[in-house]
Amino acid sequence: MAKPIRNSAKAIILHEGKLLAIRKKSNAEEYYVLPGGGQEREETLADAVKRECMEETGVDVEVHDLLFIREYIGKNHEFAEFDSDLHQVEFFFHCTVKNPHGAGNGAEPDRNQVGIAWLSVADIESTRLYPKGLRTHIAGINRGERRVYLGDIN
Q1: If you average pLDDT over residues 14-21, what whole number do you get?
Q2: Burial of residue 146, with CB atoms counted within 10 A of its CB: 0-12 exposed, 13-18 middle, 19 or more buried
């Protein structure tokens, strides 16, 4: 039996030209992902992103506009050997934090999470941030570029 489609709510937190990201390490390789995670039953997407940000980064976020929707069908991408049965729809929200300097590992960090980082948006396209296909869109936010539905991108 196939797994159900999973919803995930993610935060795009920008402050002074930087993007808040979760720093992860797996097999001695370091990479970054956005804070956020799976929506729980009877939880709104906004509540999910608030909860996940608190768990992973220790910051209380204010949720604003929906910026992007990305599908991830694991069998179509580079991590198919691990994710072949995963189909996830990710909702990326613009979020702000009152105290950006208070960000750090939250009380319930993700598996393989080793910290947080404020990544330069100017350099985001060459940063090992996943999903890769989102890098260009994040870089385009300040230029007023907008495409909400991104499809099945890696």
Answers
A1: 96
A2: exposed
